[in-house]
Specification:
It contains three helices and four strands. With about 110 residues, the protein is of the alpha+beta class. A four-stranded mixed beta sheet has the order 1-4-3-2, with helices on one face.
Length: about 110
């Protein structure tokens, strides 16, 4: 195994905030919507990638072009995270649940 180089000054690198949340923060219908509106099957949503246990949003934007046609609770989640400085979002079935966002049991 090749040794990885040491990063001497991490603070000198650009670091972006990725928030990890449970998929329980979206409705099951939104999860179904994501299955056909992601980077694999829809170019418009090339910034949404399926992951083993959920979804990775590689870029968060509050611009209408990015959010148009998305489920309402997903738009609200993205806008709220963006307002608080998040750059990316990972929705994971085992991710943490937060009292700051609505929860759905599915």
């Amino acid at each position: 195994m090749t040794a990885l180089p040491t990063i001497k000054k991490l603070k000198d690198l650009e670091v972006e905030l990725c928030v990890v949340l449970s998929t329980a923060h979206i409705q099951s219908t939104t999860n179904t919507w994501l299955e056909t509106h992601n980077s694999v099957c829809n170019k418009k949503y090339d910034w949404i990638a399926p992951s083993e246990y959920g979804w990775v949003f590689t870029y968060l934007s509050a611009e209408v072009d990015y959010l148009e046609g998305m489920p309402a609770e997903l738009i609200a989640l993205i806008i709220r995270l963006k307002e608080h400085g998040a750059h990316m979002l990972k929705l994971d079935c085992d991710g943490p649940k937060s009292d700051d966002f609505p929860l759905w049991n599915w």
